[in-house]
Each structure stands twice: as C-alpha cells, then as structure tokens.
Amino acid sequence: MPQQTFVIDRYDPVEDRAYEQEFSVDYEAGETVLDCLNMIRWDQDGTLSLRMSCRHAICGSCAIKINGRSGLACQTQVPAAAERGNPIHIGPQGNQTVIKDLVVDTDKFMRQFDRAQTWLKPFEGQEPPAREYRQDKDDFDHWQHASTCIHCGACYSDCTVASVDPKFLGPAALAKAYRFVMDSRDSQRQERLEKLSRMEGGIWDCTRCFMCVEACPKDVLPMDAIMELRTEAIKAGVTNNHGSRHSKAFAGGVKKRGRLDEATLPILSAGVRPGAIPEMLGYTPGAIRLLKSRKLLVAARRHGASKEGKQQIKRIFDEVEDAKHHHDVNRAAFSTHYAEALEG
Amino acid sequence: MKYAFWPGCVARGAAPELYKSTLAVAEHIGIELVELDAAACTGAGIISDGDPFLADTLNARTLAMAEQMDLPLMDICSTCVGVHSLAQEKLGNADYRAQINQRLAPEGLSYEGSVEPRHLLWILLEDLEAGKLNHLITTPLTELNLGPFYGCYILRPERVLGFDKQPHRRRSLEAAIELVGATSVTYDGMTKCCGFPILTTNKKNSLTMAGTHLGEAQDKGADALVTPCPLCHLNLDAQQADAARVIKRKLDLPILHIPQLIGLAMGIEPEKLGLNRHVVNTKPLLEKAGI
C-alpha cells in the first residue's frame, strides 16, 4: 500500500493560532486527496476541519489549495497531486477569511453573484410559457461552458485580482453574468453589458492571468467568458470606458505601424474626457525614469514592421473590418477541453 | 541551429536591452536568427478584446511565415508565446483555419498548422546538445540568489503550452537559474500576475501586485528577479518606484531578462547585454556576482 505525506495548514480560531502539521497516510490506488484527508480525520486527528459532501465533483464543497493551486479534493488523485510537490501541501482557499483549518467564510465570494445579478430577467409583458422557458441548442452550445459552474470558489481562491481588490466580481460571478448576457431569454443584455463595463470590479479589471482557467474543476473557462464579455460590450457600443478605448487604441497603432505604438497608447487610452489629464500626469514619473535609462528614446523612435509588412497588415485590418461575418467567434469553442466536452 | 525569430514589440520598443542581449547570446552560442520583419504585433490579448478573428489572422500570418521558411519559431516574450499558442490551438480547427487563410492568400501565405511557438528559454533547455550550454557557462553566478518571476503566459493555460510532452517547462526558470550556478529563491508570487495588463485601467491594483511580489522576493533574500516576459519587466523594473509608493515599503530589486542571465554567465560584457539600460540600477548586483 503506498504511503503519502501531507503538510496541512491549520488554524485554531480559539487560540488564534496558525501552524503547519504533517500527516502520513497509507492509501490504495484510486483514492483521492479527500479520501486521505478523511482518513486523517478518522484515524489520526478528529479536530481537522474541512467541508465535503458529494465526493464526485458536483457539490463544490471540498475546494481547497493543493500544492498552491485550488481544486476539488475529491477530484484529485494522490499521485497526480504529488507530481506537483511532495509532500503534498494542503491549505484553505485563498482570498477569503479562514474560519478553521480548511474551512473559509464563503460569504464574500457568494455576494459577488448578487452584485452581478446572475439570475434570469425575462421580457416584461411576455406571457409565461405553459412549462419552462425553452432554450434552443445553438444558443445553449455557445455558453454551455459557463453554465456548468458548481460555485466551489476555486477560481476566486486563485484569482490574482481578488487578492488585491475585494471589489472585483471575480471569475465565477463574471462567467455567470456572461451566461445571462448570452442567453436569448434574458431581457437585460444591453443593461448588463453597460453595468459590467462601468461598475467597480467589472470586466475591464481582469488581468487575463489564466489562474481561474487552470483552477476550475468543471472547465467553465471563466477568463474566456470575461474576454467574450469585453468583445460583446464593444460590439454593443459600450465603449465609453478605459478598457475599450485601450483596446481600440492598441489595435489602431498596430494597424498603422504593424507594431505596438508605446508612444501614443497611454494618450489615446486616457481619451478626451475629464480625468484624462490627471491620468496622464500619473504616468509622468514612470516616463521620466524610462527617459533616464534612455528607454523612451527607443520607444519614441517607434519601430514598425517592414514596409511590405505594414501594407499587408493594413490590408488585413481593412478586409476584416469590412467583413462582419466572422464576429461570432466563440473563444471557448476552440479550447480542446470544451470541444471534447461538447462532442462527448 | 537556425530559427525564425519574432522579437515582439516591447523588445524593439521600451525594453531594447532584451533584443540586444538576445542577439549577443545567440551569436555567442552560434544560433542563427532570421527576424520576421514583416510580422505584426500579437495583439497581446488586447486586439482580441475588440476582434478575436482579426487577432487570430495576424497571428496565423506570423506562424505561416515561419512555416513557409521551414524554420522553428523563436519568441522571446512570454506574452507572445502565450498569444501565439492560444491562436495555434484555435487554428487546429480546419474550418477556422480556412477562413483565416482566405485573408492570407493575397500575400501568398497559407497556414497549415505545423508551427509550435516556443520561448528562447525553452529552446535553450530543449534544443542544445546535452552539456553544450553547461560548457559555455564560464562565469558561474554562484554568489547570487535569484527569484524566478514566471508571470502568466509561459505557465498558463497549460493545455496550449505543451506541458504534457515537456513537463520540465513547469520549472524552466529554476532550471535556468541553476544552470548558471545561482541559487533559486522560492516565493508565492513567482507564478502570479505582475499587474502590467491592467496598468492603464487600474493602476492601484496593478502596482499592488507588482509591489507585493517584489517585496516578498526581497524578504526571502533574492538579489534580483529573472523574467521571461518583457511586459513583466516593465511593471517590475520601470514601475518599481511607483509600486513601492503604492505598497508603502522600500524596494530595490533589479530585474533580469533571460538572455541577460545566460549571457552574464557566459562571460559576455554587461554593456553588451544592455544591463546599463535598466531603471533599477544593476551595478550592485554585478559587483556581488564578481563581474
């Protein structure tokens, strides 16, 4: 019988004491990290606290940090976990307050769904159907990935923005919001896109770090959903915000020179609006430092693609802008995980 | 050894020392680089905010150029590797590729899907004959404690980065640091985001991220950080003083690019690696290393 050593981050709220504790467990092939934690509770230390219920990756209770990455204990095989670090380091979810040992207060995470208003808002005056509001398959396939969330919090736990900003809606709530933006039964598409673009901690605050994509045990691909929300918002004309100005200015620079235009990007992103000048002044110290190290001189020289390259790049921009046929590119559909899930 | 070389925009813009040190190290090792002068910016995930199809077309074009030259592709920017790899995943879909190839046809290009985007860091660890790199390390940096700073796109999402076939890529930076004889410093922030992508949209969040990781690495005894991403370099080096102000603590940590790390250990002069072009002074680091 193989043996595995675990180092567990423990917290005793009565004594307000945090400490690490090591346990060794004999386990059988096929047993998961959750099985081992249960054996520790039953045979070695009954005071170890953790959440669990279904044991087959559908209730979302047992999300914890396994070797620094969040995931479901019941879905993680012991050898796979040990490959990423041995002994296996177990800890509570991040970005939330620890109540005891591996149990965190999920209130902050759950409240983000309220802020994002992730429930169906049907069309007013519409006669309710005799049974359920039916959804057609093509529509559903487009956002199916975002509907499989089990609210385990693994994505929020590893989110790099949530770790510095409690106001950030976070991957799960934004993926759920995306699901309603894309749902043809919902009446609030435009309002939702405006709110999600404008509100504090909305779609433009994501860093695109992919932590949530890696942590999610159900292949929700939350970050892809956030990126699609950005595309949908721009498409819907919700462009009076820094994020979409930045995207437009970035693309404009590449269209002209074939390369990123560092010299004009901050000016165009700031836009013509109150607040633009203070924002620009905010960059001045950084710019002066760059100037001192002679870096800005190089940036100001504005390296571009070759002459022929520039012509071709401009041609592609013009052609693609003219042909609007492609605008339904569903990013998630191209992920190998999602494509396999759909086929399966 | 010959590669189709995509330097990316930042190495030809605000981080010229990355471009310079790449050329110096390639010459020293005997790697021939054919620069893709006509290629476009990857869009860094930002052009695709507005139009994913446009961004994928620009990237398919770059991959098609490497394919047409029948050369492996070398990126020197993590963000470029990440965006190229995500595009490569989507271009695995034949229908999508055909749509995009229509836009490449006027230029005589067509992408068949055969390119594997790779970073200089991976190439150094994967393509050189066993022992060749070790043999070239003439000035080991044994006195230095160096923190790896991976950032995001050279680690995530794993499904597009070839980690199943090349599991060593999970710790490629530690491998490079050990290769040059330095000690690798482990800290929490080393695989997190530097904050650069939101520097203009949410400066406070962005600099809190950079500052937190820098402070943590400094507290763990790092003399400098090493990063495979010039965008991380901008936030960690050029913005370091502002990051210190935001998190209200002192920071003084030079940030090295991969070819600078390797080049120093190969005995290449610091000026030829552009180490005099950093915002955070690298002189004390070089003194500690005995250079």
Outline of this structure?
By secondary structure, chain A is an alpha+beta fold. Chain A contains 15 helices and seven strands.
Main attributes?
heterodimer, A: 344 residues, alpha+beta, Ubiquitin-like (UB roll), Fumarate Reductase Iron-sulfur Protein, Chain B, domain 2, two-stranded antiparallel sheet, B: 291 residues, alpha/beta, Glutathione S-transferase Yfyf (Class Pi), Chain A, domain 2, Rossmann fold, 2 domains, four-stranded parallel β-sheet, 13 helices, 45% helix
Describe the structure.
- The complex is a heterodimer of chains A (344) and B (291).
- Chain A is 44% helix and 11% strand.
- The mean pLDDT of chain A is 91.
- Chain A is globular and about 70 Å long.
- In chain A, the strands form two sheets. Chain A has a five-stranded mixed beta sheet. Chain A has a two-stranded antiparallel ribbon with strand order 6-7.
- Chain A has helices spanning 33-44, 78-83, 107-115, 137-143, 154-158, 170-181, 189-198, 211-215, 222-235, 242-257, 265-270, 276-292, 295-301, 307-322, 336-343; strands at 3-12, 17-26, 63-66, 69-72, 88-91, 98-100, 103-104.
- In chain A, helix 6 (170-181) packs antiparallel against helix 7, helix 6 packs across helix 9 and helix 10 packs across helix 14 (307-322).
- Chain A folds into three domains: 3-104, Ubiquitin-like (UB roll) (Roll), CATH 3.10.20.30; 107-238, Fumarate Reductase Iron-sulfur Protein, Chain B, domain 2, CATH 1.10.1060; 242-326, no CATH class.
- Chain A has 344 residues and is of the alpha+beta class.
- Chain B is of the alpha/beta class and 291 residues long.
- Chain B folds into two domains: 2-119, Up-down Bundle (Glutathione S-transferase Yfyf (Class Pi), Chain A, domain 2); 139-289, Rossmann fold (3-Layer(aba) Sandwich).
- Chain B has helices spanning 16-29, 47-50, 52-69, 78-90, 94-104, 120-127, 132-136, 172-179, 203-219, 230-238, 240-247, 258-265, 283-289, and strands at residues 2-6, 32-35, 73-75, 118-119, 145-148, 183-184, 224-227, 255-257.
- In chain B, the strands form two sheets. A four-stranded parallel beta sheet of chain B has the order 2-1-3-4, with helices on both faces.
- In chain B, strand 5, helix 8 and strand 6 (183-184) form a beta-alpha-beta unit.
- In chain B, helix 1 packs across helix 12 (258-265) and helix 3 (52-69) crosses helix 4.
- The longest helix of chain B has 18 residues, at 52-69.
- Chain B is globular, with a radius of gyration of 19 Å.
- The chains are: A alpha+beta (344), B alpha/beta (291).
- Chains A and B meet through helix 8, helix 9, helix 10, helix 11 and helix 12 of A and helix 2, helix 3, helix 5 and helix 9 of B.
